[in-house]
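R.M. (postdoc): so does anyone remember the format we settled on? I'll just put the structure tokens first.
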């Protein structure tokens, strides 16, 4: 492969990266105003665009919707042929147009203004119809589109998408939207599986292997064999988990014989996971500590066992 080809590709990426740096440095009061408008929105966020801006707008609307902000995408051409009925008082609009003078914009802006819908604009032309009408105009830095002849929307769409991400992630943080909340909105696929609570797949109740610290090792082996999870939990006062005994502990201590109490063989202070934790967190612990099972606890009380083979996904 020619170095000239690779270097050109690198130049494209470096130039767009510099544009993003310039965009980041340009954020100020209008960005904060846009965040305030979205946070105070009593209805939904309506993202509008046409052409390439429309494609980017769909992604921005989807990102907002998946992170706790009710959002829809409204195509500008469809808007002026009846779909403006989707908009209602209490909504906030995010209009995207590089020029700010797209023909379809004027009737849409007029409708939003008459309805009392606040307008956030992403544009490169602050003096345009869109820029002047916006309650929070977010102006893209002037930057040449990358590529031969600079004719295709490239750098401008990259900046627009990144600015949409900045808006959505800032709103998400301000709302305190958590990984658990995110998981509720993503129940499908491998991502949804990782974001389920550990209690959904753990072994609880009678299937949980437990013995008292004063129990004999004979009883520990019987319990471990019966529950078939490769370990047994050791409990102390008030049923608190004080240790575990694994198959590996048995092999390492076989020469000591089995004429001992479970408390003599156990590994104290084992790794555990909270009952309100996500499977994704458990997978991280499995990887970090090279273990295959975790006791799930409510405070210090064991409520279940999570085995790596029970997790619906692996990293």
């Amino acid at each position: 492969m020619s170095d000239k080809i690779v270097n050109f590709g690198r130049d494209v990426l470096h130039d767009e990266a510099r544009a993003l740096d310039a965009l980041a440095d340009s954020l100020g009061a209008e960005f904060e105003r846009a965040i305030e408008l979205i946070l105070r929105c009593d209805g939904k966020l309506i993202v509008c665009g046409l052409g390439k801006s429309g494609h980017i707008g769909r992604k921005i609307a989807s990102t907002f919707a998946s992170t706790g902000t009710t959002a829809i995408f409204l195509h500008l051409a469809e808007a002026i042929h009846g779909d403006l009925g989707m908009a209602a008082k209490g909504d906030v609009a995010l209009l995207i147009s590089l020029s700010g003078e797209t023909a379809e914009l004027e009737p849409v802006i007029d409708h939003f203004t008459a309805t009392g819908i606040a307008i956030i604009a992403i544009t490169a032309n602050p003096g345009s119809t869109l820029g002047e009408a916006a309650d929070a105009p977010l102006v893209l830095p002037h930057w040449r589109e990358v590529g031969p002849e600079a004719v295709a929307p490239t750098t401008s769409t990259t900046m627009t998408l990144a600015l949409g991400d900045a808006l959505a992630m800032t709103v998400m943080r301000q709302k305190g939207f958590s990984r658990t909340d995110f998981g509720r909105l993503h129940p499908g696929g491998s991502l949804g599986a990782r974001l389920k609570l550990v209690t959904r797949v753990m072994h609880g109740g009678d299937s949980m292997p437990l013995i008292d610290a004063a129990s004999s090792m004979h009883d520990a082996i019987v319990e471990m064999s019966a529950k078939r999870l490769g370990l047994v939990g050791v409990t102390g006062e008030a049923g608190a988990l004080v240790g575990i005994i694994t198959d590996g502990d048995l092999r390492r201590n076989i020469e000591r014989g089995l004429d001992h109490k479970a408390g003599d063989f156990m590994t104290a202070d084992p790794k555990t996971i909270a009952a309100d934790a996500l499977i994704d967190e458990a997978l991280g612990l499995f990887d970090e500590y090279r273990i295959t099972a975790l006791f799930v606890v409510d405070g210090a009380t064991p409520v279940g066992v999570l085995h790596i083979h029970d997790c619906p996904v692996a990293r």
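R.M.: ...and that's the designed sequence above, right after the tokens. Also worth knowing: The longest strand covers residues 301-307. The mean pLDDT is 90.
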